[in-house]
Amino acid sequence: MAPKDTYKTILTPSEETLFKDRNSKFFGYAFPVTSEAEVKEHIEGLKKQHYQARHWCYAYVLGKEYEQYRANDDGEPSNSAGAPIYGQLQSYDVTNVLVVVVRYFGGTKLGVGGLINAYRTGAQNTLEASHIVEKTIDIPFKVQFEYPLLNKVMRLINDYKVTIINQHMEMNCVFTLAIRRKESKKVIKAFNEVYGITLLEDED
């Protein structure tokens, strides 16, 4: 199977959503995130905003390959909050997204089944209220060439719809480019076959 070359995410925070069950209130939020530090920041922000709430339960997925995830019950019974929120992130197939559901206790215990339903619904409503977009997984590469080859390089860039990330133009030019993963082998080969274009290894 060809490796996945797209992923779904959100670019802006969702609207606040609210789900109620037997006087308990569940406020839902989704945020675009790319690191655990950003996750922490959003949760701290919500704790200040909802300082009288009882629980701030969340789950997140990070990485274009969906490689990092975590679910947190924040004091609710095990797997009754974080796991159902994470389940919705999986259902909507999104990454680089944090979903937080903030609970105000209404005086009546909901039981584990009631909690699972409330946190799942809170997360679902929040992702419904989010603008989900599909993005491509792009492979970066660098090319070096003499200035007279610029037109030929630009033609290749336009023909293959290559993204220019960075360009350094002098007699000796260096371009940092990116191309969608499924096209990358073919496109890099096309650049490689032009006499005078050198593919550079990334330093990092």
From TrEMBL:
Which InterPro entries does the entry mention? Answer: Impact, Impact_N, Impact_N_sf, Ribosomal_Su5_D2-typ_SF
A GO CC annotation recorded here is: cytoplasm
Q: Which residues form the Impact N-terminal domain?
A: 22-127
The protein's matches in SUPFAM superfamilies, at most eight in alphabetical order, are given as: Ribosomal protein S5 domain 2-like
Pfam families in UniProt: Impact_N
UniProt GO BP = regulation of translational initiation
Q: Which PANTHER family match?
A: IMPACT FAMILY MEMBER YIGZ, IMPACT-RELATED
Family designation? Belongs to the IMPACT family.
| Protein name, UniProt field | Impact N-terminal domain-containing protein
